[in-house]
Design goal:
heterotrimer; A mainly alpha; B mainly alpha; C alpha/beta; A: mainly alpha; ABC transporter involved in vitamin B12 uptake, BtuC; globular; C: Rossmann fold; 6-stranded mixed sheet; 24% strand
C-alpha cells in the first residue's frame, strides 16, 4: 500500500462500520432462533436512526437518543410480532411491509431533520490505560478508541452467546424455534417467548440504526441505512444463527465498507501498476461509487455460498411457522 | 393476576364477500389511518384527499398523468405478481426497472438503427437486460436455494448504484444534476395526437393481457400455479420447479426492464430518480391484485391515481408527497390484518390468570 | 355425591376414588360434524395398566388429548383424585400428576436429555429442582433405577427411538407423576426395545403409577394391561378385565362385524410368465446414507414385474420411506441403479419417472399428494396438462372433461371439479389422487400406505382399483404399515429391517410369524 497509515485507518473505520451490522444481525439471530424471521430490519433501523437522531437534537444527549431508538425499534417490531405471532400472518409479507413502512415513515417525517447537527457519541478510551493502548501500532486506535455503543455491540456477543447456549431462557428459545408444539406440551408459553425475542431483536435493530445516525455518521439523511439492514439479514444466515460467527461477518462487511470510504484516498490503478485496457477496467472498478457497491455484491455471493454449503441444519426448524395449537 | 386471553382458531368457511372485499377493506383502512397521520402532522385531511383523488380525475392533464404513472406501476407490479404466483418474492423490481432504463438509454444515445426498428430494438434490448438481471436471484434460488428476497433486494442497490455511477461519469450530461443527455426524438415512443400519452399505455395493456393468458391457459402458467400452491407435491408429480423459478424471475425481470425503457420515453432522459419507487409500490399492488393480472391492473390504476395526486399535493400543501408511500405500507399492513381475519377466528376475553 | 358408585364400565368401585382418574361422558365434536368421542367414560387407577384399544380413527387420540388438556371436551367431566378438574393445557395436567408420552415424541432434538427434561418441569417443582445440575443428578439416579441406556448429556438427535422414549418417560417420572399416558408406545420400537419398555412399565406400576397405554395392537394390550377399554367409531364399546376375556372376544369388539376378505386378488396371476418378461422396475444395490436419525439403505435389490403386486412390509424407521423416496426421485441414492422400463432413472427428476410410466401415491396426501388450495381439475390436471396441450397452450375443455371423468370413475364426492381439493374429505381426496395416478395408463405404481386414515368403503375401493391395475398388467409396489393388508393384496412380499430387505416370499407360502419376526429383526 502506498500510504503507510492506510491499514490503520481502514481498521479504525471498520469497527464503527461493523457495529450496526453486528447489532442488527444479533437482533435477527435472537428473533429467528425463536422461529420468527424479521425481514423488516432495514425499516426498523431507519426508524431507529431517525428517532435516535431527532431525540438527540432535542435533548442534546445522545444517550437519551439511543434509548429512544431502542424504544422506537421495539414499538415497530411490536407490529411485526402482533401480526406474525398473534394473527399468524405470513412472516415474509409482514417483514417486507415493515421494511416499506420504515422507509416511508422516515422519508415522511425525516425531511425536516436533515439540516440539524448533533454532538454524537464521541470515541472514548478505557480509563487510565486507554491512551497507552491506542498507541499500539495498526490495531490500537481500532480496538481501543470507539464510542460506547461500538464497545457494547461487541461485548453483547459473548453475553448473547451465553444466554442462548447456556441459560434456561436460551434453551426455551431453541425449543420454541425448533419445535413449538413440543415446547407447548413442555409448558413453555410459545407466544410470549416469541414476542420477547421479536421485541428484543427490534430494539437491537433500532439501536443499530441509531449507531449510524448518532455515532458513525452523526447526521440524518433519508435512506441513511443504505441496505445495511438487508446485509444484516443475510449475515444471520451467513453466521448460521450463531452470535460468534456474526462477529466475523460483521467485521468482514464493516471492513468492506471502510475500504469503500478509505479507498478514495488511494490511487488503486497506480498502486496496482496496470496499464492499457486493464487500467481502464480497474479504474472503473475503483471508482468510489462502484466500490461502495461491493458490500451488496459480496453479500449476495456470500449468501449463495452459505445456501449452497449448508443443508439448513443450523436453521431453526420452525422458522416461518406460525404455531396454532392442535394443528398438524 | 388477570390476563387478556386472545384465542386464535382456524376459520372454516370464508364468506365470499369477505374474500373478495378484503383488498377494498385494506385500502379504506389505510386511507383512514393515513388521515390520522395527516391530522397528527398538522395537515388538512379533506383538502389532502380531494387533491389526491378528485383533482387528478377532473383535469385532463392530471388524467394523463394518472395513465402515465400507471404504466410503470402495472408493469413492475406484474414483475412482482408472476413470481408471487409461483410462491416466490421478487422485491427487486426496482433494480430490474433501472437496468431496463439504463440499457434503453445506452442504446438510444449510442446506437443508430434505421427508422421504425429503433424503438422495437430499444424495448427488446432493455427487456433482455431486465431478463438477465432478474434471472440472477431466480437462478441462485433454483440452483443453490439462496433466499431470493434478500438477493433481489440487494441487487436494487447495485443497479441504482451503477445508475448513479453512469450519470456522474460516462453518461453525464451538462444538465447540472446527475442526468444523461436527452434521448433523440426517434428513440421516444410515439404519442397520441396532441397529448403526452404515448403508446407505452397500450404496450402495458398488452402485457397485462399476455400475462393473464399465460397464467390461465399455458402449460408454464399451469406449472407456475401448481408450484406456487405446493412446491413439494408439484415436484413429486413431475413438475420441474427449478425451471419454473428461473422462468418467473426471467419474465419478471423482462417486464420490469421493459417498464424502465417505457419510462425513459416519459422522462426523456435517464435521471437518478427516474423511478420514484415504482418497484417497491409494485409490492402492495401485486398483493392486492394477486388473484389475476387484471386485478393487478385495477390496483395499479388506483396507485397511479395516488402518485398523480401526490404531485398536486406537494405543490398545494405542506404535506410531504412521501405520505403516499406511508399509505402504501399501511395498505399492506391492513391487507395482512384482513388475511389474518379471513383465516382465523379471533376472540378476545378477559380471564383470571393461572398461577 | 356418593363416593362409591357404579361407573359406566359397570365395575364396582373398590379402590378409593382418591387414587384414580375418571373420565365421565366425554364428548368431542370437530368442525364438519365428526363426532370423535361420543359420551366416553373411562377410569384409570394407580397401580394398574389400562389399555385404550381401537383402530385408527376410533377416537383414541382425541380422548387422550382431552385427558391431557390439549383439547377441551364439548361436554363431560374429568375427575382426578376425586376432584373435578378443568384442564386448560398440558401444564394443568402435569400439575395434577398426569404425564404423557406422545407417539410423536415431544422433544427438542438440538438439546440434551437433561435440557429437555429441565424445560418440561413445571414451576411447582422448581423448588426441588432448580437448575441443570440438579436435573443431571436426579436423572443419573433415575436412569440407574429404571436401567435406561442413556446419559443426561446425550443430545436427543443422536438417540434411537427407544432411547428417546426413555427421555419422554423420564420427563414424567422426575416430577413424581402419579399417572402416565403412553400413545402407541411400541409403534416404532424394535423387539428388544419393546421388552425394555414392558419391563419399564412393570417397574412404574410397582412404584404406584397408573399407566394408560393407547394402542391399536390387540395382543400387546392383552399382554400388558389389567383392563382394556375398546373404542370403535368414537364410541366406547366395552371395558373388560384382561383376565376375564379372550383375544377373540376383544378383537370382535374392536372391529365390529365387518369381516374382511381374505385375499382380494382373483388369482389369475400371470406369475408363470415372469421369466419371459422384463421387470418394469429394477433396483440394484441401492445405498443411501441419510442425515441424522433416519434410516440408511444398505444394498437394496428388487425387481417388479408387470401384472404383480409386491408388498413391502417393515416397521417405520427401517428404510421403507427412504426406499420409496429413492424410487420416486424425492431423494437421490448414494450409489446403485434404478431402472424404469429399461431407462436409468437413478438420479433423475421425478418428472422423468412420470414420463417413463411411473405413478406414485404418496403416504401424505395433503402435503405430497395434492395442492389443497387448487381446484380438483388442477390437481388431477398435473398428470394430464402436457398431454392435453398443444404448443404450450392448455386445452381446458379437455382437461376439465378428463377431471370429470376421473371423478366419476373413481367415485370422488366433490362439489364439482372446480371446487378446491381442501374441501374434500380425506377418503375423497385420496380417491382423487388414486384416480389421477391410475387413469394415466402407468406401467407401474408405487403406493405408499394408500389406505391410511380413510374410511372403510374408500379403503376397499382403493384396494380394489389397485388389484384391477394388476389384472391389467401393471406392476404395483404396495407399501403398508398393516401386515394383514399386505397379505391380502400382494403376490410377493418383501420385508425390510434396518435398511435391508431381509426376507422375500410368495404370498402362498408366506408365514405371518416369520414376516413379523423379520420386521422386528427377530431372526438370525
Amino acid at each position: 500500500m502506498s500510504d503507510p497509515g492506510f491499514l490503520t485507518l481502514l481498521l479504525d473505520a471498520a469497527v464503527p462500520a461493523a457495529a450496526p451490522l453486528l447489532l442488527a444481525s444479533l437482533g435477527g439471530i435472537v428473533s429467528e432462533r425463536s422461529g420468527v424471521v424479521n425481514l423488516g430490519v432495514e425499516g426498523i433501523m431507519l426508524i431507529g436512526a431517525l428517532s435516535g437522531f431527532a431525540v438527540t437534537v432535542v435533548t442534546g444527549n445522545p444517550y437519551v437518543g439511543l434509548v429512544a431508538a431502542a424504544l422506537a425499534g421495539l414499538g415497530i417490531s411490536l407490529v411485526h410480532a402482533v401480526l406474525c405471532i398473534s394473527l399468524k400472518a405470513n412472516q415474509i409479507i409482514t417483514g417486507i411491509m415493515i421494511f416499506l413502512l420504515g422507509v416511508a415513515v422516515t422519508n415522511f417525517l425525516g425531511g425536516s431533520w436533515t439540516d440539524s447537527t448533533i454532538d454524537g457519541l464521541a470515541p472514548v478510551t478505557i480509563p487510565v490505560v486507554g491512551n497507552t493502548l491506542t498507541q499500539i501500532p495498526v490495531v490500537g486506535p481500532a480496538v481501543f478508541s470507539n464510542s460506547v455503543i461500538d464497545y457494547a455491540a461487541f461485548l453483547l456477543v459473548p453475553v448473547l452467546w451465553y444466554v442462548l447456549e447456556k441459560t434456561e431462557t436460551g434453551m426455551k428459545i431453541t425449543a420454541v424455534g425448533d419445535n413449538p408444539e413440543a415446547a407447548d406440551t413442555m409448558g413453555i408459553n410459545v407466544s410470549r417467548l416469541r414476542y420477547a425475542c421479536v421485541l428484543s431483536g427490534g430494539a437491537l435493530a433500532g439501536v443499530a440504526g441509531a449507531q449510524i445516525s448518532i455515532s458513525f455518521a452523526e447526521v440524518w439523511v433519508p435512506g441513511i441505512v443504505a441496505g445495511r439492514g438487508w446485509i444484516a439479514v443475510a449475515l444471520v444466515i451467513f453466521a448460521q444463527w450463531s452470535p460468534s460467527r456474526a462477529v466475523l461477518g460483521a467485521v468482514l462487511f464493516g471492513g468492506l465498507e471502510a475500504f469503500a470510504i478509505r479507498s478514495q484516498q488511494l490511487n488503486i490503478t497506480r498502486a496496482v501498476g496496470a496499464d492499457g485496457a486493464a487500467a481502464d477496467v480497474i479504474s472503473v472498478l475503483a471508482e468510489p461509487t462502484i466500490v461502495s457497491l461491493y458490500p451488496y455484491i459480496v453479500t449476495t455471493i456470500v449468501l449463495v455460498y452459505a445456501a449452497a454449503r449448508t443443508e439448513g441444519g443450523a436453521a431453526p426448524k420452525a422458522l416461518l411457522d406460525s404455531y396454532v395449537r392442535g394443528e398438524g | 393476576m388477570s390476563s387478556i386471553d386472545v384465542s386464535v382458531t382456524p376459520r372454516g368457511e370464508v364468506p365470499i364477500w369477505f374474500d373478495r372485499g378484503m383488498p377494498v377493506f385494506a385500502v379504506l383502512s389505510a386511507l383512514a389511518a393515513g388521515a390520522i397521520v395527516i391530522e397528527l402532522t398538522g395537515g388538512e385531511t379533506a383538502q389532502f384527499y380531494s387533491l389526491m383523488f378528485l383533482e387528478p380525475l377532473t383535469r385532463f392533464s392530471s388524467q394523463t398523468l394518472v395513465l402515465l404513472r400507471t404504466v410503470p406501476l402495472v408493469l413492475t407490479a406484474l414483475a412482482v405478481y408472476i413470481p408471487l404466483r409461483a410462491g416466490l418474492y421478487n422485491i427487486g423490481a426496482e433494480g430490474q426497472f433501472y437496468v431496463g432504463a439504463i440499457t434503453a438509454t445506452v442504446i438510444a444515445l449510442n446506437v443508430s438503427v434505421p427508422g421504425v426498428l429503433f424503438i422495437p430494438v430499444i424495448l427488446l434490448t432493455s427487456a433482455l437486460g431486465g431478463v438477465v438481471w432478474g434471472s440472477i436471484p431466480g437462478y441462485f434460488r433454483a440452483r443453490f436455494g439462496a433466499n431470493e428476497i434478500i438477493t433481489s433486494l440487494l441487487l436494487v442497490f447495485v443497479a441504482t448504484g451503477i445508475n448513479e455511477y453512469l450519470l456522474t461519469g460516462p453518461l453525464q450530461s451538462g444538465a447540472g444534476y446527475p442526468a444523461s443527455d436527452l434521448i433523440p426524438e426517434a428513440a421516444r415512443l410515439p404519442v397520441i395526437a396532441d397529448t403526452r400519452i404515448h403508446i407505452g399505455v397500450f404496450i402495458a395493456l398488452a402485457v397485462v393481457v399476455i400475462i393473464y393468458a399465460t397464467i390461465r391457459t399455458t402449460t408454464i402458467g399451469f406449472q407456475i400455479r401448481s408450484v406456487g400452491a405446493n412446491p413439494v407435491s408439484s415436484r413429486i408429480q413431475g413438475i420441474r420447479s427449478r425451471y419454473v423459478y428461473i422462468a418467473v424471475f426471467a419474465i419478471a425481470g423482462g417486464i420490469a426492464g421493459l417498464a424502465g425503457a417505457i419510462e425513459l420515453s416519459t422522462s426523456a432522459r435517464l435521471q437518478s430518480d427516474i423511478s420514484p419507487g415504482y418497484g417497491f409500490t409494485a409490492i402492495p399492488i401485486a398483493l392486492l391484485g394477486r388473484r389475476s393480472a387484471f386485478h393487478v391492473l385495477v390496483a395499479a390504476l388506483f396507485f397511479g391515481l395516488l402518485f398523480a395526486g401526490s404531485t398536486g399535493v406537494s405543490v398545494e400543501t405542506s404535506i410531504s408527497p412521501s405520505i403516499v408511500s406511508v399509505i402504501e405500507a399501511l395498505i399492506i399492513l391492513f391487507y395482512i390484518v384482513g388475511e389474518g381475519l379471513r383465516s382465523y377466528q379471533i376472540s378476545i376475553s378477559q380471564q383470571g390468570g393461572r398461577a | 355425591m356418593s363416593k362409591y358408585k357404579d361407573t359406566e364400565s359397570g365395575d364396582i368401585e373398590t379402590d378409593s376414588d382418591r387414587d384414580q382418574i375418571e373420565l365421565r361422558n366425554i364428548t368431542k365434536t370437530f368442525p364438519g360434524g365428526i363426532v370423535a368421542n361420543d359420551e366416553i367414560s373411562l377410569t384409570l387407577r394407580r397401580g394398574n395398566v389400562h389399555a385404550l384399544l381401537g383402530e385408527n380413527g376410533a377416537g383414541k387420540s382425541t380422548l387422550m388429548k382431552s385427558m391431557y388438556g390439549l383439547y377441551t371436551p364439548d361436554s363431560g367431566e374429568i375427575r382426578v383424585n376425586d376432584e373435578t378438574v378443568d384442564l386448560a393445557g398440558p401444564s394443568d395436567a402435569k400439575r395434577l400428576g398426569i404425564g404423557m408420552v406422545h407417539q410423536h415424541f415431544q422433544l427438542i432434538e438440538r438439546l440434551s436429555v437433561a435440557e429437555n427434561v429441565l424445560l418440561s418441569i413445571p414451576d411447582e417443582f422448581r423448588d426441588s429442582i432448580t437448575d441443570l445440575s440438579d436435573v443431571k443428578t436426579q436423572l443419573t439416579d433415575l436412569i440407574d433405577q429404571y436401567g435406561f441406556s442413556i446419559t443426561p448429556t446425550d443430545t436427543v438427535a443422536e438417540l434411537d427411538v427407544g432411547q428417546q422414549q426413555q427421555v419422554e418417560i423420564l420427563k414424567s417420572v422426575i416430577t413424581r407423576s402419579e399417572y402416565l399416558v403412553l400413545d402407541e408406545p411400541t409403534a416404532a420400537l424394535s423387539p428388544s426395545g419393546i421388552d425394555e419398555l414392558l419391563s419399564t412399565l412393570r417397574e412404574l406400576v410397582a412404584k404406584g403409577y397408573g399407566v394408560l397405554i393407547v394402542t391399536h395392537k390387540l395382543e400387546e394390550a392383552m399382554s400388558v394391561a389389567d383392563r382394556v377399554t375398546v373404542l370403535r367409531d368414537g364410541q366406547r364399546i366395552d371395558t373388560v378385565s384382561t383376565e376375564e376375556t379372550s383375544v377373540d372376544d376383544v378383537a370382535e369388539k374392536m372391529v365390529g362385524n365387518s369381516i374382511r376378505n381374505d385375499n382380494l386378488r382373483t388369482d389369475t396371476s400371470p406369475d408363470a410368465d415372469s421369466d419371459a418378461t422384463d421387470p418394469v422396475l429394477r433396483v440394484e444395490d441401492v445405498c443411501l446414507r441419510s442425515a441424522s436419525r433416519s434410516c440408511n439403505l444398505n444394498h437394496v435389490n428388487l425387481e417388479l414385474y408387470p401384472g404383480e403386486i409386491v408388498g413391502l412390509a417393515g416397521i417405520s424407521g427401517n428404510g421403507r420411506t427412504e426406499l420409496v423416496d429413492c424410487l420416486t426421485g424425492v431423494k437421490e441414492p448414494e450409489s446403485g441403479l434404478i431402472e424404469l422400463n429399461g431407462h436409468d432413472v437413478t438420479y433423475s427428476h421425478p418428472g422423468r419417472r412420470v414420463d417413463n410410466g411411473m405413478s406414485y401415491i404418496p403416504e401424505d396426501r395433503v402435503t405430497h399428494g395434492c395442492a389443497p388450495e387448487l381446484s380438483v381439475t388442477m390437481n388431477i390436471g398435473k398428470k394430464y396438462y402436457k398431454l392435453l396441450s398443444k404448443r404450450g397452450i392448455l386445452n381446458w375443455t379437455k382437461l376439465t372433461e378428463r377431471a370429470r371423468d376421473i371423478v366419476d370413475q373413481f367415485d370422488v364426492r366433490t362439489g364439482g371439479v372446480d371446487s378446491k381439493a381442501e374441501s374434500l374429505s380425506g377418503g375423497n381426496m385420496q380417491k382423487m389422487i388414486v384416480g389421477r395416478e391410475l387413469d394415466c395408463d402407468p406401467d407401474m405404481i408405487v403406493a405408499n400406505n394408500p389406505t391410511r386414515g380413510i374410511d372403510i368403503s374408500a379403503e376397499e375401493f382403493v384396494q380394489q382399483k389397485l388389484v384391477e391395475m394388476r389384472q391389467d398388467g401393471v406392476g404395483v409396489l404396495f407399501v403398508s404399515d398393516d401386515v394383514d393388508e399386505i397379505l391380502q393384496m400382494s403376490d410377493r412380499i418383501l420385508t425390510m429391517y434396518e435398511g435391508e430387505i431381509t426376507h422375500r416370499t410368495d404370498t402362498q407360502s408366506a408365514d405371518i410369524d416369520t414376516i413379523s419376526d423379520c420386521m422386528t429383526g427377530n431372526v438370525s
